[in-house]
Amino acid sequence: MEFLLGNPFSSPVGQRIERATNSSLPSEDWELNVEICDIVNSSEEGPRDAVRAIKKRIVANKNFKEIMLALTVLETCVKNCGYRFHILVTTRDFIEGVLVRSIIPRNNPPQVVHDRVLAIIQAWADAFRSSPDLTGVVSVYEDLRRKGLEFPVAQLDGYLLAQAPKKTIPENGPTVTAFPAVRLSSKPLIPAHTSELKLALEGNGVFTPSQVMQLEDYISLPLLL
């Protein structure tokens, strides 16, 4: 169970994610976001710890500014980290239980949060469609489209092509799993939504009756803790 793993914000990367998604921030802290990506890429537990902290910030959170900041951290990690992170956030469980659940009508999210989440799902579905291990998000995207949900125009800028780890057998010794190297450049890839953060606190989203029915019909999952 998730709660047996302790506080998601207690790990080194979790502490930084807690700071990077604090609603007291006037805007995104890009230096901190890049540091988060560095930890994800360089430590064994970094990807899993980061996902736990991001999930904690989004699920059942009524502070939509924190959700927007968490989505920025999430997108920044996807654009600057590799397969070990991608495999955790493109699952059906994560997409449905974290992203889609955050925009169901009873949570009354602002329109900017609703559009941001749908844009992420669509961009990931397009970016990872050809990666067999990462198609959970593709399944959710196609399900939502079949329900009639309208998605914004896709933006794929900055998404890295995920590569599965390769197993090699040295001449002497056990099999070694090699993960594709991911290196942040001096100018890291950042999501193109920074100007929209302030909108997360400006009123509630407006859902049409058909949108309400589409999302309520689709989501029948127990609340994730």
UniProtKB/TrEMBL annotation:
Pfam families: VHS. It comes from Characodon lateralis. Signal peptide: none annotated. It comes from the Eukaryota. Residues 20-152 form the VHS domain. PROSITE patterns: VHS. This is E3 ubiquitin-protein ligase tom1. InterPro entries: ENTH_VHS, VHS_dom. Gene3D superfamilies: 1.25.40.90.
